[in-house]
Design a protein that fits this description.
3-stranded antiparallel β-sheet, 10 helices, 13 strands, about 25% helix, globular
Length: about 350
């Protein structure tokens, strides 16, 4: 919560909102008709005007990536479907072991749905800017770190409007002679929640532009949800005497860095628009119940997922399920923190 309510991170996010997005209610047509040298149409969004100095926290997650060799070794030791084959022969048991590593890379993707980006239908929130705080140094490629296409948010609208087309060979018959012609066909990828992966074949030119973003422990990386990003395919830690140079300023890095693992804390804030106020209200209720949020794309598996919640349940102290005394909540948060989580109005 200290990171999620950090004033500096929030202020930087506010500055990025102001620089990268319309916030005075501008219409897309006005931006397109504007006779200026710089194309500012990339700043348009469908959520209307908002105050760039007001927003809410998005309760996020941590990321911990172990070295690929370790993930592969542990994966080979894990029985399929969690079943231990104690009575099997070595030969039979080896066939039942899954060969997939227990942890893999996250393929390049958008944290939005490109084809429906410019409408509000079926949207649960609007999170245009994200960030993470790195607990470990990640200075070299192929060490499990962050990768992205810097600046692509300026190209995003035109790229989507082009139809994300790819070349495909379509046979047809002209008289008795069969010929082939290349046609461009749209290929929108499935969007799950707000996650859309890039296709290695259709989006190969964009994937080629992905580059490693070096990060030192204690640093923060911000990115726009219109920027394709992911983490490196492998995490192969560098040699002990080849750490990329420089000294680290993180105690966490001194501990975790020697293991070759990558550790980050994800953080983001939501602009003060109608859809986010509704989202934050739901998020606040789960926070009061001291439970993992059930709203948003959080990559969190709920242990009691699918279990109906009964209203009116009380705990051992006689409080209604999830009820938290006001003083108990306020002691944990600053004035800004209470506004960010929705306890106080802006």
């Amino acid at each position: 919560m200290k990171i999620a309510t950090n004033e500096t991170l929030f202020q930087i996010t506010c500055q990025l909102w102001k620089a990268a997005y319309c916030h005075d209610g501008e219409e897309l047509e006005d931006l397109l008709d504007c006779d200026v040298v710089e194309d500012k149409s990339y700043k348009w969004h469908p959520f209307g005007a908002f105050d760039c100095n007001r927003g809410y926290m998005y309760i996020d997650r941590i990321g911990y990536r172990i070295p690929t060799a370790l993930a592969e070794r542990i994966g080979k030791q894990q029985p399929k479907n969690g079943q231990h084959q104690c009575n099997s022969t070595n030969s039979n048991q080896s066939k039942k072991l899954r060969k997939r590593p227990i942890q893999r890379s996250l393929t390049p993707h958008f944290d939005c749905c490109p084809e429906s980006y410019h409408n509000t239908t079926n949207k649960g929130k609007w999170r245009p800017i994200q960030c993470f705080v790195s607990l470990t140094d990640n200075l070299q490629p192929n060490t499990g770190g962050f990768e992205a296409v810097p600046g692509f948010h300026r190209e995003f609208r035109s790229w989507v409007e082009s139809g994300r087309k790819s070349m495909s060979t379509t046979p047809h018959r002209d008289g008795d002679e069969e010929q082939s012609e290349e046609q461009q066909q749209p290929h929108p990828q499935p969007c799950v929640g707000e996650y859309t992966h890039l296709n290695p074949t259709h989006d190969r030119e964009l994937i080629r532009r992905i580059q490693h973003i070096p990060v030192k422990a204690g640093s923060v990386v911000f990115w726009d949800n219109r920027i394709p990003h992911g983490n490196s395919y492998r995490n192969d830690p560098p040699l002990a005497d080849d750490d990329g140079g420089g000294e680290t300023n993180s105690d966490y890095s001194k501990i975790l860095g020697t293991s070759g693992s990558r550790a980050v804390v994800y953080c983001s804030f939501l602009p003060d628009v109608d859809i986010n106020r509704i989202f934050v209200g739901k998020q606040l209720q789960y926070w009061k119940m001291k439970r993992s949020p059930r709203v948003g794309d959080r990559w969190i598996k709920q242990e009691d997922e699918g279990v109906d919640e009964k209203e009116g349940a009380f705990d051992a102290k006689g409080k209604q399920d999830g009820e938290v005394e006001k003083n108990e909540v306020q002691l944990q948060l600053t004035d800004l923190g209470q506004r960010l989580i929705g306890l106080l109005e802006w």
